[in-house]
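PROTEIN DESIGN WORKSHEET
SECTION A - STRUCTURE
LENGTH: 149
TOKENS:
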């Protein structure tokens, strides 16, 4: 598995992956509007540090990060359905945990309320629920001491 900074030429493929991973959840919550989703994804792409995750030369995922002075926020993490459950997402998040620990800041993210598989993964990696919205469960990892043994 390798990660590289996304370029503008990745935008279409990354949106296609976004659709494949998140459409089911978005349809349940708001309904899927293709035009709005494309425009919103382009804004998030422009405002975050987006990395492309590849394995054996194939696009298998992406992660979008907002680095703030007092925290690292995972805006989106998406792993292609056929590559889920293979440890790719865990490796990405563990790497981000190392970065957060080195900076002594929390690593934060949100999961759709409907995405219980993601919530369980985050809990296994030591994330704890810090809040809820109508659509998301907000979670935070605050350091190795929050890790389950």
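SECTION B - SEQUENCE
RESIDUE ASSIGNMENT:
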């Amino acid at each position: 598995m390798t990660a590289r900074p996304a370029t503008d030429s990745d935008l279409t493929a990354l949106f296609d992956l976004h659709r494949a991973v998140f459409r089911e959840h978005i349809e349940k919550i708001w309904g899927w509007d293709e035009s709005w989703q494309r425009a919103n994804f382009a804004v998030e792409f422009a405002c975050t540090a987006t990395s492309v995750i590849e394995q054996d030369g194939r696009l298998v995922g992406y992660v979008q990060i907002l680095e703030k002075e007092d925290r690292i926020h995972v805006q989106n993490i998406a792993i292609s359905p056929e590559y889920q459950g293979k440890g790719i997402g865990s490796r990405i998040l563990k790497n981000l945990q190392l970065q957060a620990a080195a900076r002594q800041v929390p690593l934060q993210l949100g999961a759709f309320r409907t995405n219980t598989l993601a919530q369980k993964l985050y809990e296994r990696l030591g994330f704890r629920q810090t809040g809820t919205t109508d659509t998301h469960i907000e979670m935070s990892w605050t350091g190795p001491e929050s890790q389950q043994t």
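SECTION C - NOTES
The mean pLDDT is 95.
Helices lie at 11-29, 34-47, 88-103, 116-124.
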